[in-house]
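Quick start: what a row looks like.
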Amino acid sequence: MKKILYATSNQYKIQAMKERLKGEEIEIISPKDLNIEIEVDENGTTVTENAILKANAYYNIAKIPTIAGDSALYIEEFEKQPGLYIHRIEGKVLTMEETQEYYVKALKEIGGESEAYYYTGLAIIKDEKIYTKEIKEDTFIFTSNICDKPAKYDALSRIQYDPKLKKYICELTEKELKNRNSTFDVECVNFIKSIV
């Protein structure tokens, strides 16, 4: 079984990555498993630069193959794009609740909904070499109508609607999430398998 450290402290992301890789000969190790607690200054200008910064920081401590990711958000109807600053508005880092509130208000101002997508950069460091991949994720509907189900992943899952499954992201079961066969899931797994 090959091991790869996932450079994130977000437990949901770690769980989701483990689910993605079920059935593969690859084991995801979390920073918690290795007693690593660090803050990485994500001051890159692209998703890939930020992913490399995170992967490097954790790889330099663990010295095992390490993967990191960073995402930018693009909302079709917005004039000013969040991009890399999904949770940082006008220099302030928002809580999950504040983030949801901000986007609901902004969506109401443009008619209540818009197509949107995430653009994600991945970086793997193995044997001192850096490998990168960028993925444009599947389009979803960003809506000002908040789902009454509790948030999954983060507060934005309550205002993200999957047009194929006709459900909010926070409503999807683990099986539905796994079987979505999303562009990101497929490309992410293929990328990891090609390097590790």
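That is the whole record. Strands lie at 2-6, 26-29, 66-75, 88-89, 92-93, 113-126, 129-136, 140-143, 160-162, 167-168. The radius of gyration is 17 Å.
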